[in-house]
Specification:
The chain has about 160 residues and is α+β, with helices and mostly antiparallel strands. About 30% of the residues lie in helices and about 30% in strands. Strands 4-1-7-5-6 form a 5-stranded mixed sheet. A two-stranded antiparallel sheet has the order 2-3. It is globular and about 50 Å long. It binds magnesium ion. Magnesium ion (MG) binds next to strand 1 and helix 1.
């Protein structure tokens, strides 16, 4: 089965910028109830989607105080546990970040490593791309950041 996820967060000065579980030095960051890790949120939705298990908002409602400021790495761990419970194993993930700045190239290896560790995958099965939006729209204006993720899962043979 394949899964697809999308997420978007507003950017603001003074917030922290955590992407793929890695804190990136920046004067601005994502505005969110959790740590605002747009990349891991898209990935969680892709994983849940592949398994037909709904979306991240159903599992971790932003109205629930226990998820305030929660690390999205922890959310990803919980989503992976859900998949295992349903007898699914993950084959690969492929993610795309869309942001104008900062350049995330230097942080990609650490992000891939983190995702690989939590998802129990070899690094080569964790793909991460990044692009700008060519200064177009709200992403181009630096007002927001988007992430897309796809994954493949299969049922663990009995
Ligand atoms: Mg989100």
């Amino acid at each position: 089965m394949i899964g697809f996820g999308y997420d978007i967060h507003r950017l603001a000065e003074g917030e922290s910028l955590i992407l793929g579980g890695v804190e990136i030095p920046s004067s601005f960051g994502t505005v969110a109830h959790s740590d605002g890790d747009v990349l891991l949120h898209a990935l969680c939705d892709a994983l849940l989607g592949a398994a037909g298990l709904g979306d991240i908002g159903e599992h971790f409602p932003d109205t629930d105080a226990q998820y305030r400021g929660i690390s999205s790495i922890e959310l990803l761990r919980q989503v992976m546990a859900l998949l295992r419970k349903e007898q699914y194993q993950l084959i690969n993930v492929d993610c795309t970040l869309v942001l104008e700045r900062p350049k995330i190239l230097p942080y990609k290896p650490a992000m891939r490593e983190k995702i690989a560790e939590v998802c129990g995958l070899p690094i080569k099965r964790v793909s991460l791309k990044a692009t700008t939006s060519e200064k177009l729209g709200f992403v181009g204006a630096g007002e927001g950041i988007e992430a897309y993720a796809a994954c493949q899962i299969e049922e663990i043979p009995a």
